[in-house]
Design goal:
This protein is an alpha/beta fold. It has a single domain, classed as Rossmann fold, CATH 3.40.50.300. It contains five helices and seven strands; from the N terminus they run E-E-H-E-E-H-E-H-E-H-E-H. Strands 1-3-4-2-5-6-7 form a seven-stranded mixed sheet, sandwiched between helices. The radius of gyration is 16 Å and the shape is globular. The relative contact order is 0.18.
Amino acid sequence: MNFNKAEFYTSYGLFKQIPKSDKLEIAFSGRSNVGKSSLINKILNRKSLARVSSMPGKTVTINFYTVDNIYFADLPGYGYAKVSKSEKQRWAGLVEGYLADDRNLQLVFQLIDFRHPPTADDIMMVNFLIDNEIPFVVVLTKADKLTKNERAKRREALLTELPCAEDIHIVEFSAQNGEGADELRAIIEEVSEIDR
């Protein structure tokens, strides 16, 4: 798979706008500012294919990128307090509609900030993926911000913080130094082979 040939495809702000999937899809989910766009850029060897912002709640649409025979779906971040109730409802309808739809969704990368315990929204999302039998991998972002000792403590804590933690494939990732990027690319390649 040629990750360097990735292109922005399109974005949708309402679930009803999204056409049926005609390619295999991999979605990226996580709270606002967890680093979804940075992760997508790192995997695709691009600096600014996915727009990165220090302002939480910047991605308000589902943005689709295309690579070979796959769509990457960058879901809008959840849990950002400073948006209106109607905006939160639109977001919920968009994301829940997407995840519950009969799509060719092969995998969700569920991003969680390694530095902190998973939020209530993170736990809710993991439970949703488990309950709906959607295959997923947890990606612990901002790994470079932790010392070796802090990482060990967070790993230990996650075993009790995350539901079914011992059964979940977890990847530690840093957009700064690229740690975990090769493993994520390998997972994507493996998933894309299943569909052929």
